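Troubleshooting entry. The earlier prediction with flavin-adenine dinucleotide gave an output that would not parse, so I re-checked the input for stray whitespace and re-submitted. Clean input:
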Amino acid sequence: MKRDQTLEVVWFKRDLRVEDHRPLAQAQAAAQCAGQGAVLPLYIAEPEFWQLPDASARQWAFVAEGLESLHAALSARGQGLCLRTGDAVAVLEALRQAFPNMRLWSHEETGNAWTFARDRRVAAWASTHGIEWREIQPAGVIRVLERREGWARRWDRLMAEPVTPPPEVLRPVPDIPLGSVPDAAALGLPPDPCPERQPGGRDAALERLNSFLHQRGQSYRRAMSGPAASAAHCSRLSPHLAWGTISMREVAQAGLRRSAEVKTAGRRDGWTGSLSSFQARLHWRDHFTQKLEDQPGIEFRNFHPAYDGLRPTEPDAARLAAWSTGETGLPFVDACMRALNATGWMNFRMRAMLMAVASYHLWLDWRAPGEHLARQFTDYEPGIHWPQVQMQSGTTGINTVRIYNPVKQGHDQDPDGAFVRRWVPELQGVPDAFIHEPWRWEQAGSLLDRAYPAPIVDHLAAAKAARQQVWSVRGQAGFRSEAQAIQDRHGSRKSGVPGPRRRARKTDAKPSPQLDLPLT
Ligand SMILES: Cc1cc2nc3c(=O)[nH]c(=O)nc-3n(C[C@H](O)[C@H](O)[C@H](O)COP(=O)(O)OP(=O)(O)OC[C@H]3O[C@@H](n4cnc5c(N)ncnc54)[C@H](O)[C@@H]3O)c2cc1C
């Protein structure tokens, strides 16, 4: 390739695959059109990004496996993945020095505030040097969305578009060292043991998809709420979707094909309901991400300003530490947190309960607990995470306030205490009847604050006090009109704004097998 020819640089971010990758396919088409042009696939490991409070070594380990798999797929086509570590603008500028005629391709990214600011710096650099940067919409999230009306129909149309095949051959770019995947320490990441983390990479993503659609997913609807069964029967596609080892369109279309198959076969064995619940959740993914795309500030600020100052912004360090390490003395909460810390994953209901306990029972502002959860999740996705964190903390103003009773959740979701005993072995000897409330056991004195902490709060009294505080905000003048504005901007068109007198749905009632919560 000559110096005056255009190098098509494809910048991989949270899209670590060659299949259904429009920037790669379009860059290749542009290179072919130019005759002698070439495509350079690029990944930039940015230490500053990986040192943010929402990043972790477990996420990097998953990404690193995705990069190895992406490199193999690209190499098989003729040009491996170019890996650089450093600041994105500095890396791109070094490439420009070597290849003055370059064009940049990537997917649009709905990330955190840091990636938003970095993309602005890259855009400014590109404009200064007359470099064209083509950003392509990845799936159903729409940049500069004017109105929420019709969003769901647009999403369906976008998901139905054909999956883009990968290029068959990539012309090699001569004289360019490819570099290697840095380890976590080189990115400044502290050790983060996660012994049961899901493996990354394309093969692992396809295995999760196929085993879910043909075996594991049959009891998805029934099993999704229990922490143990859900680990086997939920799709577990979340880290793959978060880091793009598989695309939303690929998953949505595979789900629809399988739905059609089971309908045609007239099966009445759970598959139909499970697949329709799954499809709804894929839709939620982009519905939530659209909120962060439309209002990036919700990573830091309450959706509804009436909640500003409700909880102390400086978190109670002892409570935060007890919650983060699974030492609250509330067995089911501690078991969920320890399982999350060891696996990098937790089902939706237990994520919601963990966040609710931090926000209501422990009365912690959502930001610090939200960052802890973000680091623990291998599938951390800012666009889902921050709206969900706020929703479970009661600060959106448009959602029903859900204060989970952690003891009742334990009895409902882990009736024989097997999950608690697995993750909180200190409680092995506690009889079933007391496993979720060991403080009621007559031998509690030999256990509590010795082998296992006594509860750090009286959970019933703490929930009552929190409920009163949160509902008193809802009664304030002007609350409802602001909530309506939030609903207009972000809410699902299927739901309405709950008024101050509309009481919380009984979250602690026996959960329906399918926890299809309202979409707002
Ligand atoms: C406080 C809190 C924080 C969360 N943070 C994240 C996060 O950082 N990353 C993340 O992927 N999910 C997050 N979720 C949503 C949900 O818990 C996970 O998507 C789900 O547990 C992932 O497991 P799975 O892939 O087996 O899901 P499945 O049940 O198999 O669902 C398939 C896919 O649908 C999407 N999805 C499922 N449930 C939801 C939901 N409630 N909202 C939006 N999308 C959904 C996910 O992409 C998921 O991979 C959070 C939920 C809560 C309550």
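This one parsed fine. The first strand starts at residue 7 and ends at 12.
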